[in-house]
């Protein structure tokens, strides 16, 4: 059970309701009116809990789980313990997301402007905003309706934030236009100068950075991630993209819709990624490249060339995944042979 | 000498006292009542300073040092300059730590709540706490005795912090339970949502993150490090673990006791590490793995499989260290041969 | 055109004035009195804009550009569209920097101390400083003239900041001495304890960190970058060095003048780099090394040995660049041969 210190649970829900919420179908003949009070992981769930299995790593936990109900792919259902009600779905994690969101629906925050928040005289706040203590909102800044601006957040002059956004504590935003439904976590830095210098042996000359950061609707940005504003063109984060913690996005980068950038990845200046590109953890993508829609880049890769749409690449320098794994195997084999020879 | 602008030194200490403080033994027949006023590095120390040698890189500096006394391993003592008093110990750095802590003992901070701090009405502050300017303490938040909460820190609703903790400026903590004697440096972000999405071509569905972060006693966490809360299970940082700057710890990760994670390392979701695991700088550990107790992972490694207790692995993908270095040598040799052939 | 929400442009400038500002020479016989009102990128510029070409990636954009004038290397001038006035220069990006700085000259900030800023009673502020809301300035802290201290910045006790510095929102500085003309972006953490522990199976003993961070004149430091103070010696960032976002600089590191560290790079403790060293993105440099002046380290490299002055190294472990690329080619060839043989 989620710690009531931090969470409040709604419900209960019947098995029938859970099937409807999740889009899953109930397996076999079980009591559709049985009620469930919470979600839980396989190894902590009890008879009143709903769990899910979406990773074969955890199939032993599934087989031993005491969960009263479980969202599971039909192909794995046979491993279930006898007393478990099964909610069958092709996409158990997606289904679980809907169930969990029902038990733990987002609590509407009460509209409020903390006395210690500093709001510019010419700033515009939409109805229903909550501005926490110590937040600093600049001049001509515009915040949409029902936004939650965390404690000690700094929104620079002129920044625009759409409706229903959440900005985490201690985040800093400037020179940016943010869409609706955007979530930024604590410590995020958006819109600072890009790393633009005309290098030279007598010193490096700073180049004015004259663009913005455009964050489209439904984007989520992880803690302490940094996104620099463009040099003239804008830096753009496409709608629905999800960026993890400690990611670096340089000036003029454009991410398409629905992109994923896992923690500690970095994308150098002016690279353009298509829709639904997936970038693994700690990946580095060089500047001025094109990454085609739907491309997938494995963790820790170093991408130095354009990547075709739909391709999967990995390695540093990154090559097609099959070629990468062949190289890994080739080197391991050669190394092993050398060892056999006593060298 | 440490800059008096920032530090105040106590002492002096006699050679005899230093031997007792450090657990080292005095070599030869020297004046046990000689006094020392400070610690210093080998190349800056003078006759009234105590220094230490713990890295063979610096043996030349040792031989030329003007330090009046030096903590050193017996095996290296022969290189000492003639006038130096030697404090012999198997573990000079450990011994130095005790000596330095004696000269520069932590100053107790005066209890104080800054007028500009915002403390929730239902928050509980232990005796002797110092809450700096602009800190924001939520509702039902509980802070132990003698804690030092830095300027502009944000502690979310319900957060618990044990006795004798230090939280650095601009840190953000939420959904977490922190033990005693924990040090968090500036800009740390603890407890934000993990990177949990049910991915899909129509968009990525956010999955509620319902766990906490448990930070056990005597943990230290570096500047701008991010630790996400669990999805349902908790994220756990074991007692005495030390985490460097800019590290990413994802949801549901469990670190055992005494683990070390060097700067810019990242550990993906649900990976479990045993006690005293050492993870080098910029290492990436994939999700859902088991890292056995005492395992060591070399810098920049990419760990994609479970690691056995006590093993040392390195490389991306990580392999046992001896195999890694053999692969490095094999490739260098083959490349060199190709070059010889004029190719 | 730069968004007037965030920027205000000066000008216009004649072609002749632009030649003088940039140090470029006008090509052919064109109207020197023609006026230009703004800078713009090649693919967005119109007849009244000045653009630049400094990367062959963009030569097609250049050939199609509608820019009225363009800074370009003489060797590429032949590709220009007929109506474009050309400003020829060996260093178009440098020249562009001067032009852009003329159109968008830094606006002097009005002196001001926000009512919600907390300034220590014994702090000293130079003339013309602007201290934004929520900033916290410690005791005995000294700030030079015309500094701009961002909202919710924390400057610890005793910190010294020179004239004409800009410190971004939510940055935290302690135990540091900062020169003139330094720019630090949002979320920077300077001067926290280095990662210094005497490791041991009974637990890791914290070693007092007794040095400072010295940031010399004209340094720029990117968002959420962390620089630890020295253990006793200082950590030093040499004059004119430029450090990108999310970089980690450990205790006792010394960077020479004019060094470049690209985003997410990390330098371990006590490493010393000479002047004008260039360190690529996501590079890791081990501790206690010497990196010679003018050395260049390719992106994602792992440097485990000293690097000679002027050398270019790459790879993990890093080797001379020619050797690295030969190794990459060797492995690709061997892997391909194995595949041919049907293995």
Keywords:
homotrimer, 343 residues, alpha/beta, 13% helix, flat
Produce a short descriptive summary.
The structure is a homotrimer of 343-residue chains. With 343 residues, chain A is an alpha/beta fold. Chain A is built from four helices and 40 strands.
- The coarse overall form of chain A would be flat
How helical, in percent, are the residues of chain A?
A: 10-25%
Low-confidence stretches of chain A: none
User: Helical region count of chain A?
Assistant: 4
Structural class of chain A: alpha/beta
In what range is the share of β-strand residues of chain A? 25-35%
Cα gyration radius of chain A (Å): 24 Å
Major β-sheet annotation of chain A? 12 strands, mixed
Q: Tell me the distance between the termini of chain A.
A: 58 Å
Largest sheet: spatial strand order of chain A? 8-11-14-17-20-25-28-31-34-37-39-40
Q: Which chains share the greatest interface?
A: A-C, 63 and 64 residues
Mean pLDDT over the full residue set of chain A = 96
Number of strands of chain A: 40
Q: Looking at the chains present, what oligomeric state does this protein adopt?
A: homotrimer
């Amino acid at each position: 059970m989620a710690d009531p210190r931090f969470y409040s649970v709604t419900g209960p829900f019947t098995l029938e309701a859970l099937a409807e919420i999740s889009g899953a179908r109930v397996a076999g003949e079980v009591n559709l009116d049985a009620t469930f009070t919470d979600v839980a992981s396989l190894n902590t769930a009890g008879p009143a809990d709903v769990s899910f299995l979406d990773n074969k790593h955890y199939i032993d936990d599934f087989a031993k789980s005491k969960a009263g109900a479980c969202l599971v792919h039909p192909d794995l259902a046979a491993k279930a313990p006898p007393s478990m009600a099964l909610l069958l779905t092709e996409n158990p994690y997606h289904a679980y997301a809907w169930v969990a969101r029902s038990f733990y629906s987002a609590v509407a925050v009460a509209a409020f402007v903390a006395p210690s928040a500093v709001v510019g005289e010419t700033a515009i706040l939409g109805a229903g905003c909550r501005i926490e203590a110590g937040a600093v909102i600049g001049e001509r800044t515009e915040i949409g309706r029902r936004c939650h601006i965390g404690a000690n957040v700094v929104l620079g002059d002129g920044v625009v934030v759409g409706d229903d956004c959440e900005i985490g504590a201690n985040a800093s935003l400037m020179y940016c236009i943010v869409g609706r439904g955007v979530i930024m976590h604590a410590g995020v830095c958006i819109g600072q100068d890009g790393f633009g210098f005309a290098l030279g042996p007598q010193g490096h000359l700073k180049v004015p950075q004259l663009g913005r950061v455009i964050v489209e609707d439904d984007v989520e940005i992880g803690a302490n991630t940094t996104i620099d504003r463009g040099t003239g063109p804008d830096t753009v984060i496409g709608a629905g993209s999800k960026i993890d913690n400690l990611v670096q996005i340089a000036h003029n980068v454009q991410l398409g819709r629905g992109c994923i950038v896992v923690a500690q990845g970095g994308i150098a200046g002016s690279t353009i990624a298509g829709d639904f590109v997936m970038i693994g953890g700690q990946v580095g993508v060089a500047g001025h490249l094109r990454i085609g829609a739907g491309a997938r880049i494995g963790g820790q890769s170093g991408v130095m060339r354009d990547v075709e749409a739909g391709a999967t690449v990995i390695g540093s320098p990154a090559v097609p995944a099959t070629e990468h794994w062949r190289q890994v195997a080739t080197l391991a084999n050669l190394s092993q042979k050398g060892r056999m020879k006593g060298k």
